[in-house]
Amino acid sequence: MEPGTQPLKRCGCGTPTEKCPDLPRTIVPADVNPDATLVFDVRREADFAASNEIIPGAMWKNPDKIDAWIGALPLTLDVMIYCVRGGGVSNSVVDRLQAAGVKARYIEGGIEAYKAAGGKVVTK
């Protein structure tokens, strides 16, 4: 790659903008506003059951059953997802959602980083 050039986004466009269909995959915890987007908790079933906390307004979706719920998600709204630490679960769910045309991103570091950044949680 030549100096000064940026890599192409996955959509293949050479000039990514806010309208680019492949926006960034992550959102930093301090920038999370659960009131401005759909929020889905995609922690594995055991992790979700073991915790008594959830981001206000979030809905739990079983990542192992994504085929059952992916088709019901809106393509016109921003979707934010999180797992425990923002690792493999969030990555795989974002891959599937973006491939289906959902404008999805995940919280870097998951719910743990969100709480560490001062994000509010509620008892579920």
TrEMBL record:
InterPro entries linked: Rhodanese-like_dom, Rhodanese-like_dom_sf
Domain Rhodanese, chain residue ranges per copy: 33-123
Protein's UniProt name: Rhodanese
Source species of the chain: Thiobacillus denitrificans
